[in-house]
Amino acid sequence: MIRHHPAEASLIACAAGAMPMAHARVIEVHAARCPVCAAGLRAAEAAGGALLDALPPAPMAPDALARALARLDTAAPEPAPAAAAFDLAALASGRWRRVAPGIAIMNLLPRDATDSRLDLIRVAPGRALLTHGHTGPETTCVLSGAFADGTGTFAAGDCVEADAALDHTPRALPGEDCVCLIATTHHLRPHGWLGRLVRPLLGM
Ligand SMILES: [Zn+2]
Asked: What is the distance in A from the centroid of ligand 1 to the CA of 8?
């Protein structure tokens, strides 16, 4: 059962194309598994479309807003198009790079103009990442397995948003590999000399 969802503001930003692509991809992958957020994305897309339709190319028709609102009421539910278009399996056919015992990373989208990147990370059961903070937002969707980081326990389908204020030590729970799709903007901020040593290896 999915228990952790992106914030409403993130769904709206995702639908409006107003967030870095890497973070939008993570939210879309979550929404493809979460009917609640899929409906939220569709509603945000419909609202955005209705607002655009209501913008006047010429003087606005007196009933433009009423028609736009009526369209919201009658809009038929459809699968979120962005979620359907993003083929995670095809993207994730690259090579795992081992960065520490029990930890591997596969880069899916290289760092872009917003200094964001998209990666898969695979952590063996019981293994922990080094304690780290962030210098920008991080959006994670758990694809399989589960992890805990002191703020909560996150299982398959869950979406976690972290900001620069969060310091954590994510640890995969026993049982199976924990595989997560992670968007990061800017860099991780590792603690301690070991973290600073391995950060260049992670590239994150
Ligand atoms: Zn959700």
From this structure: 10
